[in-house]
Amino acid sequence: MNAGRNRSLLLLTLMLMTLQRAKAQDPQFSQFYAAPQYVNPALTGNTHQDRIGLNYRLQWPGVQPGYETYMAAYDHRFSTVNAGIGGMVLRDKAGTNGLTFTTIGLNYSYEARINYKRAVRGGLRLGYTMRGTDPSGYLFADQVIRDNAAQSVEANLVERVSYLDMAAGFMYYSEQFYVGTSFNHINRPNQSLVLGGEARLQVRTTVHAGYSFATDGRSFSKADTRMTLAAHYKAQGKWDQFDMGFYLSHHQLMGGLWYRGLPVVKAYQQGYGNDESVILMAGLELDQQFRVIYSYDITISKLTMRSGGAHEISLQYEWPRKAKNRKHRTVPCPKF
What we know:
By secondary structure, this protein is mainly beta. The protein has helices at residues 3-21, 36-39, 141-145; strands spanning 50-59, 67-78, 83-94, 99-113, 119-132, 160-173, 177-184, 204-214, 225-236, 239-250, 253-261, 275-285, 290-299, 310-319. The protein has a single domain, classed as Beta Barrel (Porin). It has a 14-stranded antiparallel β-barrel. A hairpin with a 2-residue loop joins strand 10 (239-250) and strand 11 (253-261). It is globular and about 75 Å long.
């Protein structure tokens, strides 16, 4: 057996162990504020009325073929009953052998007002996920034994699984400040691709907060230039991550700078700082309430820029146009 076959068998063993025991982490968006339904179902319908959003992320293109994530979402606000409904489709593909999952989710949110400027929101998501892999590129031990047979007789690997997935979230907000939390996979579905195996999804907990203020000397409601400071913490099993940064908006233009990492609080091993990336972003809002934003993750971990960083683009369209004298205010959280 040559070295190449040994490596293939080793990779197969590691893959099977991972599929059976590992608790996978969910995909992420650097532009988390542009994927509100994914971040927190309580943000469903936090617009004037209707919104369509598209998100695309290509992570580590230098490690071919990279990791791709797509998302499409729509939500609607029922202002007369302070409720929102929405739907989202999320697809993620990781690695060369097509480890993929597709989630279809339906979201509902309800808003309870404390007073004219303050409110709380709650939301629920019911999702259905299809997860699978393409084993055609793997080399199994029985194929080697049988003189490189074209197909394996291995029976314990399942190519496709599906399961129900549930999430819940809450948020408090005022005119300039918001804080929220969400809990994903609260039913702990089994995502194992090994027959008879068990790999329960860990609950993913997020906490997000932000504060917006005017920077042009005018009142916040009349300002042409505003800055938003925001932070987003995610934890799933033994894995956690923290994003913090700001963006500045002036009329139709916006730009921002973000940092991802936990260098002081946590280090995964001696001498390995918990830094991941610095994120640059720029965006444009057209008069028709169509918005586009692009961001690039500059890798600052030991993976270095040989990974290719990460590219991300988001598109959003909202309608109808916001009335000048709105009776119902929307959640003033970072969105575009």
